[in-house]
Every structure is written in C-alpha cells, then in structure tokens.
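Question (not urgent): is this output format expected?
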Amino acid sequence: MEVDQNNKPTGRWILTNLAMAVALFAVLLVITQVSLKVITRHNQVIIVPDFTDLSVADAKIVAKRYHIRTEVTDSVYVKRMEKGHVFSQNPAPGSKVKKDRNIKLTINAHSTKMVKMPNLVGYSLRQAKAEILGSGLTMGRLMYREDLATNNVLDQFIAGKYVAPGTEVEAESPVDLLLGLSPDESDTYIPYLVGFTLPVAKDNLFENSLNLGNVSYDETVQTYQDTLSAVVYQQNPTYSAGAPVRMGTTINLKLTTSQAKIAAR
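Got this back:
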C-alpha cells in the first residue's frame, strides 16, 4: 500500500481498490444473472411439435425428444380417423413452452360408438338430413326414382342394405336415401364451391339435391388436421350460372390448403 509521509493512502491506491471493487461487482453480477437463467430457464423455450395423427406411444417418443411430456386427458369419436390416435392437443402445435411442460392430448376413441337408425320414410330430404345428422349419422348418396313427390324419402339404406328404424348402427355411418322424383321437378343447379371446406361444400351439394363424388387432396394436405382446414379449389362439373342439371348428379371435388391455388380460380 502506498502511503505519504503522514501515513495516509495515496490517490493511486484508492483508484486501484476502487477499480478492483467495480470489477468484483461486475463478476458477481454476471454470476447472478447466469444462475437466474439456469434456475428459471430464462429464454429457453421449446416449440411444441404437432402430435396429430400419431399413436399415443409415438407421441411419447416425440415428446421425449423435445424434453416435454404428454398426457391423454380426453377422447372423441371420429370414424374416419384411426382409433387411439391423437385428434387434438393443448397447447397447440407451434406454441412456446418450457422444458418438462405437460401437453394434454385428446385421442380418437378405441371403441366404436353405436347409435339408433331413425325412421326417415315419408320425410322430405331436408327433414331427413336434419334427422340423420341429429342421430349421429352422416349423409350418404341420394338415389332417385320416379314418383309424384320430389325429394320425398321412399327408403333408407346403409352400405346398400335396408336398415329398419331402431337398429343399432355404427355412428357416422353414411345413410343412403331413395327419393321420389317428379319428371316436372327434376332439375337443380350446381353451386359455386371454391373456397369452401369439405363439410360446407357437402352441405351445399345436398341442399341442391346433388351427390358428393370423388374427393381428392393436393400435396399441401399431409395430416388429418390439414383435411379439416383444406378448401375446394376445383369442382367437376364446374359451376355454370343458370345451367340446370338433373337431381342426383355427382360433383367431384379437389381440395388444398394453398391460398395461391384458390386465388387463381
């Protein structure tokens, strides 16, 4: 330590110790910040992967790779989806979470849900449609036979076989209807379907007494969730304002998730 003749510290000694104190404070500050980051995992986030369509076992494997966890908390019944596979998740894919976060999964039920077949004979097409959907079934094909009452239900089938009212059938089974068709009321019109999702397009077809034919998806549709968000970009026969077609005509659809394809139509 430098002192003057009166045994007092010199200015250089004071400055040196002050610099050492500042340096020590800076080191302690850095150590504290690093420690807090480790403890709180500051800025260490994980982007949640998409578990949709995966089996529960595969979802767990993927989750382990991302250092998160999965838990099945609910189930739904979706006939068109493989049983036991992930239908949805919370948080959603792309969400930011911390390590070890638990992702809640809703899976497609393992067991088949059964519902009772309603009595549709004598109903109008619109009434029959409401009854079918309300019973947990889906609309199948519309078949026509000459009759005085157009769009009056004459018979009901599943997979080509007559099904009596009250019979237990698999939920979401498509119900085919045999309908009356008067020669004087056999014309309908094709709606413009571009930009609509499949359920909306299908509903529009039935409202116009038309059948849904072949449904195909382009390369942008990869997962089950993609099929839910995909929209029509092409229909065949095409929309033609004012051009009549016969009731029961089949319309084929192509769907995409590409907004560019839709805008080009």
